[in-house]
Input
Amino acid sequence: MKKLLSLSFLLVFNFISSQNQSSLKITESEEYKDEVTANNILAIHTTNNGLTGIVRDSKKDILFDIFDTDLKKVFSKTVESDKRESFVGEIFFENEIKFFTVYAPEKTERILYCHIFNLENKTVTKEKLFETTVEKNQDLFAGGNKRQTSFAISPNGNYFAVATDNIKKNVNSYTVRVFNASNLQLVYEKAYQEHEERFYQHNDLSIDDNANVYTLGKLYIKGRSEKKKGEANYQFVLNKLSKTEAKELTIDLAEEHILSLNISTTANELHLLGFYSEKNIFRIKGGCNFIIDTDALSVKSKNIYKLPIEVYEDLYGEDKADNKKDKELSNFYVDYVLKDTNGNTYILAEAFYITQTYVSTGTGGGYFITTPHYDDILILNFDANGTLNWGRSVFKKSGSPSYNAFLKGNELHVILNSGKNLTEKNDGRTKVSKGLFESSSLYDFVYSANGEVSYNKIQDNSGNTYYIPFYGTYQNDTFIMTSDGKKKKQFMILK
Output
């Protein structure tokens, strides 16, 4: 028994020792004080000149802050907002964050505003983009997805597109508006997928330098059910819209069930990326990548791959992975689609679900406690031809959005908080979680070009400032994240 305990201790010691310090250069800014308490970050970006802009909201206001290259606050403005005004999206190019809100003065009236936050000039202005009517209490933008999918800016920054739902009682209708990014003038407005019976569900949006817009979504065959007699009750449709025409491409499925697809652009190609299942849309058997020739508007190739064995080894351990490889994963939603300089595309998704627990008060009554779960992370890497290079996963448990990801060189960095020391279980898995009485640490998981992973500690959080990777931004080869302080705040910089 003593030998067994000694061996177990040695294995744990070796694993803890293998958690190297991060190779990234780590610095922290000076603390600063907030005049208004607002932790909910809606946008954070850094310009090429090193200015960092942050947009936050409080109960009654929107807060705009600018920090210099040393992350000292050099500008702050508070703009009053109405309880009927809500954030719907943002885009960023060079020195400007364009921040969009919808105002609902009446049950059927909607006004879209654009707040222009210029970091170089230290100005905030607000302009009305358009006004429209909707069915009673109808949303103007499709919701439910963790990723922002209704706003897009062209690579050259000259145009931006806004996709809205215009669903009426007797007709499904959708509209794209393209604006000049410099003066906010409407370039063109185009309706698409108008149909009295068939329902269209928006997935993603892209716009090119010539103001051509690509909207991707599901077109349901009958009703809104995902399946009919065990088969998919929808087709994916890619719409190509311009000032003069509207075209569409139907992407047929075989045995696949797909929750949603996401657009990644490469030259004159679109890569439509996502996960497929053989059972239903909320499960995952593997990854898929449809490559679209935008000139011919045709499907060049359809690539379907089962999840690699390494995904199951990370989640279930090496001994169980082979028996689990036919098991479909569930409840994953895409957070990041990243592309490196070699044309490889990374898709990262996190398992998200909600549980409810009934608590009895002992007097014949009680109440429910709702708990969100942000658990395992799934990572797939596709090359420029749509071939799956590798897949990995992170065995994780968390109660809040807990990670961020960026590409630096040929390496993928996943930044997250976990227990003070990562736990290697007997089956070989590395578990990312924090025990009830355990302190935490900030980690940098680094994935090489071929999918090998190293676990690098950035800091022990005990006695140090606690940072939230989820509220971070990566620009100019630098990742910046903010702390969770209420009044006193600080930044960590990773280079």
Summary: The two ends are 47 Å apart (CA to CA).
